[in-house]
């Protein structure tokens, strides 16, 4: 824990509730949740909220701070301030976010940075994220070929090269090209532009996967395989993650092996 000598008793612990309801929270996170004096959360649905409330009745959702037409940048600042104020008021606070609290989720990071700057103890505990679920459900090990991950819009706008020998994970594909930060959906035009950008790296027939891990244990994951050219026709939701399998595997490089005094023959 990052601790400073603040005399107030307030503190913050950011926890992840996992993706699938009730079964993916760690024992440590659950203990913090049950013992908190004040719990705030950004959770995917009412069922998750009711479950968290059953563990700690002080639970308050921060979802009310989102609004169509309001910049998400402002929403995240407002959420951060609500959490920080409760800590300043002397409460032992838990911020419960679905998945991992620090993966593609900025409020926990903002609050921890602000509170530590003000001298309060603040920490983050890891949770089971959407990509942890996808390795299990899609049955691939990111260690086999390597794996790169981007927020979809940041990737699409940045012109960065893709390593096509590795898996690619594009988070928030449901917001692809959404630059205003004020709406919650991508558009057909943005998806067509995404196809043109991805086509710099992959043929139009390359297989892609839309993945959605189940929020409820009895549901099955969504695993829809399709060709790059069909991306605009797919039903993409706010919880869809795009997975792009490698075009080629990793290959041995003669110049790199030379640096180790090795030869391609040494690998049979
Ligand atoms: C704001 S981020 C939250 C990620 C979350 N903190 C985590 O650890 O997985 C939202 C993005 O996470 C991914 N995501 C969220 N829920 C998902 C699910 N059930 N299945 C697959 N991806 C999901 C999607 O890419 C979605 O656009």
Automatic annotation (TrEMBL):
GO molecular function annotations of the record: methyltransferase activity
GO BP of this protein: methylation
Pfam family, one: TP_methylase
Entries under InterPro entries matching the protein: 4pyrrol_Mease, 4pyrrol_Methylase_sf, 4pyrrole_Mease_sub1
Domain Tetrapyrrole methylase span(s) in chain numbering: 12-211
Keywords, ordered alphabetically: Methyltransferase, Transferase
Highest taxon of source: Bacteria
Protein name (record): Uroporphyrin-III C-methyltransferase
């Amino acid at each position: 824990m990052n601790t400073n000598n603040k005399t107030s008793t307030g503190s913050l612990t950011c926890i992840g509730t996992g993706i699938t309801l009730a079964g993916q929270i760690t024992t440590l996170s659950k203990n913090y949740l049950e013992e908190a004096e004040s719990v705030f959360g950004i959770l995917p649905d009412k069922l998750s909220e009711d479950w968290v409330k059953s563990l700690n009745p002080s639970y308050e959702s921060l979802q009310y701070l989102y609004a169509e037409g309001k910049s998400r940048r402002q929403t995240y600042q407002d959420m951060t301030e609500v959490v920080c104020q409760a800590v300043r008021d002397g409460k032992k606070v838990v911020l419960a976010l679905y998945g991992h609290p620090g993966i593609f989720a900025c409020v926990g990071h903002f609050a921890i940075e602000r509170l530590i700057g003000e001298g309060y103890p603040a920490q983050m505990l890891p949770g089971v994220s959407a990509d942890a679920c996808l390795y299990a459900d899609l049955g691939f090990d990111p260690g086999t070929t390597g794996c790169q991950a981007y927020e979809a819009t940041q990737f699409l706008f940045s012109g960065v090269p893709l390593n096509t020998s590795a898996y690619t994970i594009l988070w928030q594909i449901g917001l692809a090209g959404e630059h205003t930060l004020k709406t919650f959906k991508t558009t057909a035009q943005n998806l067509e532009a995404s196809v043109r950008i991805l086509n710099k790296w992959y043929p139009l027939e390359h297989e892609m996967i839309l993945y959605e891990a189940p929020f409820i244990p009895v549901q099955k994951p969504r695993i829809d395989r399709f060709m790059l050219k069909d991306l605009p026709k797919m039903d993409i939701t706010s919880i869809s993650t795009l997975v792009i399998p490698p075009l080629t595997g990793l290959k041995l490089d003669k110049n790199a092996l030379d640096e180790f005094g090795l030869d391609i023959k040494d690998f049979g």
